[in-house]
Amino acid sequence: MAVLDPTLAAIRPAERTSALATLHEWVVTVDHKRLGLMYIASGLTFFLVAGIEATIMRIQLVVPENHFVSPQVFNRMMTMHGTTMVFFVGMPILLGFANYLVPLMIGARDMAFPRLNAFSFWMSLFGSLLLYFSFLGAEGLYGGGNAPDVGWFAYAPLTARVFSRGNSTDYWTLSLLVSGIGSIGTAVNLIATILCLRCEGMTLGKMPLLVWLNFVVACMILVAISPLTAAQIMLLLDRFLGAHFFDTQAGGSAVLWQHFFWIFGHPEVYVLMLPGFAFASEIIPVFSRKVIFGYPFMVAATVAIAFIGLGVWAHHMFTVGMAPAGNAFFAVSTMLVAVPTGIKIFNWLATLWGGKIRFATPMLFCLGFLFQFLCAGLTGVMLAVAPFDWQLSDSYFVVAHFHYVLIGGLLFTIFAAIYYWFPKATGRLLDETLGRWHFWLFVIGFNLTFAPQHFAGLIGMPRRIYTYQAGRGFEVWNQLSSAGVVFQLAAILVFLWNLGRSLVRGEPAGDDPWDAWTLEWTTTSPPPAYNFETPPVVRSRRPLWDVKHPEDPDWRYE
Amino acid sequence: MPTGPVRAYWVGRWREGRTSAWGSRVRPAILLAVTLGAVAVASAGDDTTRTSSVFAPVSGPADAVYRVATLALAITGAIFVVVGGLLAYSVVRFRRRPDDDGTEPAQVYGSEQVELAWTVIPILVVIVLCLVTARTVYDVQGAQKPAGAIDVTIVGHQWWWEVRYPALGIVTANELHVPVSDSADPTPTFMALESADVVHSFWVPRLAGKTDLIPNRTNHMWIEPRETGLFLGQCAEYCGTQHAHMLLRVYVQPRAEFDRWVAAQRRPAAADPAAADGRRVFETTACVNCHTVRGTVATGRFGPDLTHLMSRATLVAGAAPMTRASLHAWIDDPDRVKPGALMPAMKLDAPALDQLVGYLATLE
Q: Of A46, A118, A465, A501, whose Cβ has the fewest other Cβ atoms within 10 Å?
């Protein structure tokens, strides 16, 4: 519905303000939508930066014994790419969408703690700037290196002062510490918002799946970030106060760091992946024109993934020499995750089944996600077979696997979400023709880059090597992989062009361009600062379905 | 050392592993060929260094991994075909047609029976995989050491491998020589893995999966190669600047050849009087602080043992071939041959450098 009361519309800021005033407005804002958009914008900016870092690595690996960059530069690119993509691309974009969508979908006017929300965003952004400031400031007193080069999981004791001189590792540590504070703030905020601010009629069982999944994600962030923060503090104590937690020269434990890191790191994978599931769970039904199949099982599967996901971390450590019982335990727990994940995939398939599928760009990206995430899940099962992992761990097979999860799975759903909710946030549709170009170029580029890496790993290529020897069969896979980057870059350029062009000249979207069913589509595009003129009242999981089909409303069946 | 019945039991387990059900019955060779045709092509040929594919195992643990991997591939391959097929079918079959009447399709909210089915079936699959996984884990990690086993201690360094045979009194670097093992009289090699600095990982794919070398900790692994040849591997855990040039060569030799190699390595360093000048350069510069040449004043352990330097095929953990020219280039400016390497340039003048290389070249 449009804004009915013109006096409310007048509260919105004047159309013509100076650039400085606009900037000031965005900097001081506590509006969940603006913060959400700033999160997403910062994530997309760092996505380009980390993409350039990846491109540098792929150029270096085109031919054996290449000298395009030095090993020191390659290792910094590798570390910065991983750290940036996980902490300063994935997290901000997903928290940004959560910020933007959760209040709209539960019929609230803002997050529970708007100021905490702003604080969290700025902490996260400050953390990412701190990481990148290392390029300038990390020489330190000892003059060792600039950007961090210890890998994104920074295994001890490579991070000890004796092996990592200068301050690059300190920038890495502090930036994660600072952005972790932001993540925890947002998690607390999401939990409070979801538990306390739902509109009338929206019981927990009637929340859209996106809200449910973000609730689970927020709980996981609270559990997962704490050990990471603890480990970073211990590392700082080691480096500055001579503590010996991870200092193996003085009796510390290298394996302890791995436990701390992965008890954060594996739940983190689900923190990143569940929001992707959330987007798919909203978009697939709308473009299949069917209600999500098995809503209660989707929720239960999510919660099961979260619980089991907290008990699988040592599958990253099958090669550290755990006892057979430990290896067997973590192999079994890891394989168990496949069960609820499979339930999700089957429910999405069942949602497609019998539908009338519209192949708009958001749906194309979701279908790409389904196929690639299936591949990622199956290679994940192979990696869970501990003895197979002894061969695959730390090889390019693992690189391929987690890029199928995080690019083929997560990034595809993020693109789907951008195409789906861009009209809501801007009032204009993204161009469909450019969207299809973006999709097909990216599908080709992504698979061409990462599918060959499975084979490189299987024939013995370890990850994180800045070069390789000729004659071991690695060349062809690396060349295919690097060729894929060309397609990916083209796809991203098309995407950026589409964003810019549609912002200015895109087709006006209206309130509900996709004929969708959740509450965010009941308000204007873009929504006013207060979201809803009157707080909505819902009776089912699809309030707009009920409005559009009064003869056959959902609440009869739920 | 186990003797008599213990050893007989162990040999039995060994053979059982090789001819067990997975090897003969469950190995779906056709499926494997289809799924990984490309890898199979890459692994063809007699030259053992042409591939280090995990699907071309020639040794105990790698065989066991191959068997369980084949099963995992078969299962995941089947799931891929079924689920991928359903996805493709749904997308084609349920696309909106051009003549669509604009009505909404039937809304199906769910089905407990169907949910139950696709919960229980995956659980059964997981149970099968778990049992096979656990069995393989216990088999590989629980293998007993037979009397004929060779003991080796491998110490990871930034960025080279120290290889010590404590029982034989041999210290070498970047090359592991082991005898081929005969199933009638198994002579597997049992390795203790340690690290002098950061975490490394020992990985020779055709022989075994990888095991990390972690400072302040001793890990164990074993190999039992049944074919001779040279098998390539390298460090698999990121260990700093030159992680990429921490290569590993494993020579699996017939027993007699291995014994000859042992005898040669146990000899003291060559003392060729023609190279006395070079030896003096070596002994009077800082070389001796880090390197050992048995029978000289050089007893350092920070760098590789040079007693039989020239018996090795490569220099600086595989970054260069073992030739006089590359020795010369390496000593003159290590950072040029292997950027970031920890050996300092000794700033020797040209004649001293030539003499030093001349001396090192005698260390056969």
A: A501
Tokens found for residue B139: 């088999």
Contacts with B35 from chain A: Cβ below 8 Å: none
Measured CA angle at A63 (ends A59, A66), to 5 deg: 75
Query: Which architecture does CATH list for B273-360?
Result: Sandwich (2.60)
Are B138 and A328 within 8 A, CB to CB?
A: yes
Rounded average pLDDT over A77-96: 97
- CA distance to partner chain B, nearest, from residue A40 (Å): 31
Distance, CA of A361 to CA of A495 (rounded, Å): 12
Check A293 against B95: CB less than 8 A apart. Answer: no
Neighbours of A251 (CB within 10 A): 8
CATH code of the domain occupying B4-98+107-141: 1.10.287.90
Burial of B326 (0-12, 13-18, 19+ CB in 10 A): middle
Chain B residues near residue A355 by CB distance under 8 angstroms: 94, 105
**Helices B112-141 and B60-93, packing angle to 10 deg:** 160
Cβ–Cβ contact B41 with A under 8 A: no
The ranges assigned to domains in chain B are 4-98+107-141, 273-360
Q: Closest approach of chain B CAs to the CA of A161, in angstroms? A: 12
- B42 CB neighbours in chain A (<8 A) are 459, 473
Structure tokens at A142: 């000892």
Domain A6-12+29-556 has CATH 1.20.210.10: yes
Of chain A, the end-to-end C-alpha distance in Å amounts to 26
Q: Nearest by CB to A387, which of B51, B133, B237?
A: B133
A366 at interface of B, judged by CB pairs closer than 8 A: no
Mutate to test the interface with A, among B126, B211, B232, B338 (most CBs of A within 10 A): B126
Instruction: Tell me the two tokens of residue A76.
Output: 């910094």
User: Helical H runs in B170-212?
Assistant: none
Among B238, B133, B65, B214, CA closest to A320: B214
Which chain A positions have a beta carbon within 8 Å of B129's beta carbon?
335, 381, 384-385
Query: How much is the pTM?
Result: 0.92
**CB-CB neighbours of B267 under 10 Å:** 12
Q: Say if B197 is an interface residue toward chain A (CB within 8 Å).
A: yes
Size of interface A-B (CB pairs under 8 A): 299
Note down pLDDT in tens along chain B; length 364 residues. 344 443 333 333 444 444 444 444 444 444 444 455 444 444 444 567 778 999 999 998 999 999 999 999 999 999 999 999 999 999 999 999 999 988 999 999 999 999 999 999 999 999 999 999 999 999 999 999 999 899 999 999 999 999 999 999 999 999 999 999 988 889 999 999 999 999 999 999 999 999 999 999 999 999 999 999 999 999 999 999 999 999 999 999 999 999 999 999 999 998 889 999 999 999 999 999 999 999 899 999 999 999 999 999 999 999 999 999 999 999 999 999 999 999 999 899 999 999 999 999 999 8
Q: State the DSSP H helix or E strand holding residue B229, giving kind and residue range, or none if neither.
A: strand B229-234
Read off the tokens for B88.
């493709």
- Name the residue type at position B225: P
Nearest 10 degrees: Cα torsion A113, A118, A119, A120: 90
Residues 107-146 of B with CB under 8 A from A: 107-111, 114-115, 118-119, 122-123, 126, 129-130, 132-134, 136-138, 140-142
Helices (H), B245-316: 255-266, 276-284, 287-290
B139 closest CA partner among B48, B316, B17, B222:
B17
Closest CA to A335 of A311, A301, A369: A311
How high is the ipTM of this complex?
A: 0.91
